[in-house]
Design goal:
single chain; 195 residues; mainly alpha; Arc Repressor Mutant, subunit A; Tetracycline Repressor, domain 2; 2 domains
Length: 195
């Protein structure tokens, strides 16, 4: 049912999606839909949560580099590679799984403010990882120690997330290589990692 709902919501948008279309795609009667979900909003929430869970189940790239044995310049270069890798994974993951669904979530927020918490949770998943990295790098003296990790992480996650939506959902022309390079450069300069 969730896969059927995702396909219909991606195709038609949140507001134009009909429960009858979801049921037909899933091969069940409309009454069966209501055995699983009380409303279109409930199945939409399940679709977004399933998409987020799939992203979370992707194994993170393990970093086995022992940075304690590196020089400060090597640590800085290593951190820059981590930023570039994180931005690249986000761009790829967004293109593969969630671009249209998150556009549909943004579409639904205007008429369903109860979905705001779902959108906030999606943002927090990225921001929390960024904040943890910032704290680590601040402790190592690699980035600006005056930056608040939580606010900085929110800003960086929003920059990457919104830029990606503009390019992949709204269709603004972009070059993937330049996009990756630009987002990485803005990120490392913004936190002082380039000094």
């Amino acid at each position: 049912m969730i896969d059927a709902a995702a396909a219909i919501i991606e195709r038609d948008g949140f507001h134009a999606t009909r429960i009858s279309d979801i049921a037909e795609r899933a091969g069940v009667a409309i009454g069966s839909f209501y055995s699983y979900f009380p409303s279109k909003q409930a199945v939409f929430t399940a679709v977004i949560e399933d998409s987020l869970d799939r992203v979370d189940r992707q194994p993170p790239r393990s970093d086995t580099t022992a940075t304690a044995d590196l020089t400060p310049e090597q640590r800085r270069a290593h951190a820059i590679k981590q930023v570039e890798g994180a931005v690249e994974r986000y761009l790829d993951r967004f293109a593969d799984q969630s671009a249209t669904l998150f556009a549909r979530l943004d579409e639904a927020l205007g008429s369903h403010p109860e979905l705001v918490e779902l959108r906030r949770a999606a943002h927090a998943r990225s921001a929390d990882v960024i904040a943890a990295s910032l704290c680590r790098w601040q402790s190592a003296g690699l980035v600006d120690a005056d930056l608040d990790p939580d606010h900085t992480a929110d800003a960086l996650a929003a920059m990457v997330g919104h830029s990606t939506r503009v390019w992949m959902v709204l269709g603004r022309p972009h070059d993937r290589t330049k996009a990756l390079e630009t987002l990485t450069r803005l990120w490392i300069r913004g936190i002082g990692l380039d000094r």
